[in-house]
Amino acid sequence: MSRTVEQAYAECRAIAKREAKNFYYSFVALPAHKSDAMCAVYAFMRKADDLADDESLAIPQRREQMAAWLDAWRSARAGAPTEDAVFIALNDTQRRFQIPDDLLEKLVQGTTLDIQEAKPGVQFIEIGGRTFEVYESLSALYDYCYLVASVVGLVCIRIFGYHSTEAERLAEETGLAFQVTNILRDVKEDAERGRIYLPLDELRIAGLEPCDVLSNDPIRLRPVLLSLAVKANAMYQAADTLTPMLDRDSRAAMWVLAKIYRMLLERIEHANFDVFSKRASVPTATKLRVLGQGMLMTAWNRMVTR
Description:
Distance between the termini: 41 Å
CATH class of the largest domain: Mainly Alpha
Oligomer: single chain
Helix content: 55-70%
């Protein structure tokens, strides 16, 4: 039996609720049709990410699976029948919110950077008999962050609705802030996977080398981690400017998302950048409190627009 659009959205919501963690709390603060759309986009991103990160398969096999999945998505976009719930919901979302294919292609490009053969701005460095991918400069890192996070922001504001073209630049910058926060949180896990996102130029300014990242020593690495945290904090100002440019019914969602990510960065800072002995996170109870504040904001915005 063919899935209805409603059933497809329900499946996407289940994926988002199970996997999205920080993002899902912002979805709840949206009107139903926008929340559904965000779940569809997230489920699409999640599938691409899972295909790229499936360490049970060799990288050539991951590339083959990704190519086949992309071909199936493009065929569905062109009108071919599909039973894939994510494709059904995403097609409807793109139609409703005028999200161009190009943005979603860039989103997948960002997700697949780690399995692509050509990696601009990345040096391959041998450390202890292993090869590590190291971003050679802050500029190269920001190019990576644009594809994996800023593009997501550009998709999201099309769902949120906005009334100034300046919102696009601010969404890009907000996405950078979120991704740099993720990078700070995941230094240890990324290094275990052979990826060092702390840029080589930033490391060397601090008198360090990529091998120092493997030390799991927060005191040694603190100058670099602090430098990136300062940059992220400055970029979070973009979220404050962006929020009033969004449709009233979407402002609370943006506020909730930025608040939770800022709190994550604050927890990293309060731990003196020790992201090695314990993974930084925002407790669920705290996220629920922030969501409650966002829901009050949503209710107020609905009252003032009546």
